[in-house]
Backbone:
């Protein structure tokens, strides 16, 4: 699996997601610009010593990342970019997940750019919320919820006991 963070702003969220990716052997893709320096102590602290066990890539923009994903896709129809954002037609648990899918999360304060939501509207998914006065869940919680559903559906391949 792959987790993609577009313009992450909060170091502990990115660090927590890096740790999540390391533990699940998922690849992390970070798309610039960032709201912090990658050497930020909060980022390192949140990711602990997991950064060395993590496959991750840094991209200057969506275009470069998307080109890489297309070139490395094993699917004849190309990579599937699942946009996790409120108002998606499908819930994340209604998706038929495949092991090389990309879970895309946007900036903490602004979400995924509208142009990408429109381009991938058939891949726009949501996490159910029940309190109308709550704005959103924490980004790293969203990543964990969606990733573990995708891993569950694909059989938790590689799980250690």
Residues:
């Amino acid at each position: 699996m792959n987790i993609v963070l577009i313009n992450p702003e909060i170091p502990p969220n990115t660090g927590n997601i890096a740790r999540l990716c390391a533990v699940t052997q998922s690849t992390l893709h970070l798309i610039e610009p960032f709201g912090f320096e990658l050497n930020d102590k909060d980022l390192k602290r949140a990711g602990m010593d997991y950064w060395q066990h993590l496959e991750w890539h840094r991209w200057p923009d969506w275009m470069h990342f998307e080109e890489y994903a297309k070139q490395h896709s094993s699917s004849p129809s190309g990579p599937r970019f699942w946009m996790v954002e409120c108002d998606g037609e499908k819930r994340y648990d209604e998706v038929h997940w495949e092991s090389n899918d990309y879970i895309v999360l946007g900036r903490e304060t602004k979400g995924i750019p509208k142009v990408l939501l429109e381009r991938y509207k058939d891949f726009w998914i949501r996490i159910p919320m029940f309190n109308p006065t709550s704005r959103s869940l924490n980004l790293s919680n969203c990543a964990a919820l969606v990733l573990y559903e995708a891993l569950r559906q694909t059989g938790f391949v590689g799980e250690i006991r």
Summary: The chain has one domain: 2-153.
